[in-house]
Amino acid sequence: MSRYVAAIDQGTTSTRFVIFDADGQSVGMAQQEHEQVYPQPGWVEHRPQEIWARTEAVIADALATTGLTAADLVAIGVTNQRETTVVWDRFTGEPVGNAIVWQDTRTDQICRDLSADAGRDRFRASTGLPLATYFSGPKVVWILDNIPGARARAEAGELLFGTIDTWIIWNLTGGVGGGLHITDVTNASRTLLMDLATLDWAPDIVAALGIPASMLPEIRSSSEVYGEARLASVAGVPVAGDLGDQQAGLFGQSCFDAGDAKNTYGTGNFLLLNTGTEPVRSDHGLVTTVGYKLGDAPAVYALEGSIAIAGALVQWLRDNLRLIDSAAEVEELARSVDDNGGCYFVPAFSGLFAPYWRDDARGVIVGLTRFVEGGHIARATLEATAFQGREMVDAMEADSGVTLHELRVGGGMVKNELLMQFQADILGIPIIRPSLTETTAIGAAYAAGLAVGFWPSTEVLRAKWVEDKRWLPQMDEATRERELAQWKKAVTRTFDWVDAEPV
Question: Left if phi > 0, otherwise alpha if psi is -120 to 50, otherwise beta: which for 486?
Fold first, then answer.
């Protein structure tokens, strides 16, 4: 009888349930979007109950369309949008409010206050992270300080905190009826609360932020049997894998050796480099993070460049400007012109992440003339993702001493061949797309399958990675450097847009 591994892939804009066979091929999938909530400029929220309802629905839909049941599944893995923060009542399961999404910038003042004496790198030695609105810890502080009664309830032991993986696993394994309150090392490493050396919560940082320790989930490895699902549709199936989405992408791309790198083009843009079992500190604006940890084996670390807005910029053209009717149309519109017409688009909607870490930045479109038309703006939209990719690669090579000779890519945007060619051009190295582009879901499935012995080793998984297409650079060096210089000039125009103090 055939057996399968499944993955819950809970992303920024949608939730999917994907079922894989022993060859790592998808045999069925269901997907549903959830609402993006924007209460104020810079604020981004999700409704946790809606995300869980979508999760239940896609599990049922995928099983129904494939004709499979829980008995056909050997394990379930979970991957998730990482820093998005949920706080809920441990006794009722009710969130105290909406989830604060990783892109949200409302904690800028909290971060400034925490960095006032010791600077933005106050906790970097322990956590590998700068003080920034991106990470979960300051979001928890905001919830405790701004939701009426939340701090008192947390101090009384009534509230739980988790990133979305924790919320999903807690509900999947029973919720108020004994659900597991856990996270894995990759997600914990994105909270600004975990010590990279001990792989446990850092008591001094937790205390400095004023977060009751009783709220924090237990930190586990990325690949082990945590418990069994109690949701009716998958009851009894081991829940055995948990990885933040970008680390799942690294794992799904079979980047198992130090020096292996991948870039995922999704809502944001995330470049990760495997640095082995020792964390590498960044001096060039990257973050040090946990790549994955398999059971009792040592943790594998990574350097990461994080860009907030990539595919989300295409969605913005569609939903806000109504320049296109569907995301797929952006390539055709961009191909209607030969170049960007001197137009550059820096999408600092949530400030700038790596390598700048500027919470005060906001998006700009520069170089506008009467010559510029919709095609030029569409082209500048795609090029923005590639320019940001180049800046991350430059920082990564400077930090690690590793020169990339090629780059593996995944995520929804890699279907855009104009973008992939420009990325190769602006980097000057080949871009390689695997046959299975949904590397995030397969990474979570791999972690779960390894934990239950469905796949015996990472070497077996490495053999499943198959190249689909590669793009070779065609741009000459002089043009490449001129374009990059113009981009960097555009980036400087985003700085200091938000005042340091509220006005």
Answer: alpha
204: Cβ–Cβ under 8 A, 6 or more apart, which residues? Answer: 126
In the structure encoding, which two tokens stand for residue 90, read together? 């441990």
pLDDT tens-digit readout, 10-55: 999 999 999 999 999 999 999 999 999 999 988 999 999 999 999 9
Structure tokens at 363: 């998006």
The whole-angstrom distance between residue 31's C-alpha and the CA centroid of its chain comes to 18
Nearest alpha-carbon partner for 128 in 275, 258, 304: 304
- Taking the alpha carbons of 160, 162, 164, 170 in that order, is the dihedral positive or negative? negative
**Closest among 237, 223, 86 to 165, alpha carbons compared:** 86
Give the whole-angstrom CA distance, residue 276 versus residue 362: 35
Quickly list DSSP for 288-344: EEEEE-BTTSPPEEEEEEEES-SHHHHHHHHHTS-S-SSTTHHHHHHTTSSS-TT-E
The secondary structure of the chain in percent helix, strand, coil, rounded to multiples of 5, reads 35, 25, 40
Tokens 């103090």 correspond to 501
Which pairing describes strands 261-265 and 223-228: parallel, antiparallel, or unpaired?
Answer: unpaired
Return d(Cα 41, Cα 104) in angstroms, integer: 9
Contact 194, 188 (CB under 8 A): yes
Query: CA geometry: angle at 57 spanning 52 and 63, to 5°?
Result: 130
- Contact between 310 and 269 under an 8 Å Cβ cutoff? The reply is yes
- Measured at the alpha carbon of residue 223, what is the angle toward residues 126 and 165, in degrees to the nearest 5? 70
The encoded tokens of residue 361 equal 């930045």
Give residue for tokens 């500048």: 380
Would you say residue 438 has pLDDT above 80?
A: no
pTM of the entire structure?
Answer: 0.88
Burial class (CB in 10 A: 0-12, 13-18, 19+), 460: middle
Distance separating alpha carbons of residues 389 and 487, to the nearest angstrom: 12
Report d(CA 184, CA 300) in Å as an integer: 13
314 neighbors 266 (Cβ within 8 angstroms) = no
Nearest to 383 by CA among 339, 333, 351, 430: 339
**What is the rounded CA–CA span in Å between residue 378 and residue 422?**
13
Task: Give the pLDDT confidence score for residue 503 in this predicted structure.
Answer: 34
User: Other C-beta atoms within 10 Å of 432: how many?
Assistant: 20
